[in-house]
Amino acid sequence: MKQPIRNIAILAHVDAGKTTLSERILFAAGEIHRPGRVEDGLATMDYMPEEKERGITIESGVAHFEWKNTWFNFIDTPGHVDFGAEVDMALTAVEGAVLVVSAASGVETQTLASFRKLRESRVRTILFVNKLDNPDYSLDETLINIEETLGVRPVLMSLPQFKNGKMCGVLDVLSQSRLVHSESGAEVLDEGWESDASAAEERALLKKYYAEAVEFASNFDDEILSLALDNKPVPPKMLLRGLKALAASDEYVICYAGSALEGFGIRSLVTALSFFLPEVPTFGEDELGQVVRLRHFRGIGEISLFRSHVDLPRRDWPTGFEFSRLKANMLLPVDEIRSGDIYAMRSPFETELGQVIYLDDREMCDESAGRDAAGNDSESVNGNAAPSISENYLPLLQTRVECVRTDDYAHVERSLSVLARMDPSFRVQKDDGGFWYLHTVGEVQLDVLLARLKREFGCEVRAGSPEVRWQERLCRAVGPAENTFQIGPHKMSISISASPLEGDAHDIRLSAEFMENAPREILAGVRSALLESTEVGVLGKGPLVGVRFEVHRFEWTEGALPPMIKKCCADAVAKLVKPADVQLYEPVMELSLECPVNFAGLVTGDIQAREGKVKEIEGDGKTHFLKADVPLRKIFGYATGVRSISKGTALYSMKLLGYRPATV
Question: What is the pTM (predicted TM-score) of this model?
Answer without folding.
Answer: 0.71
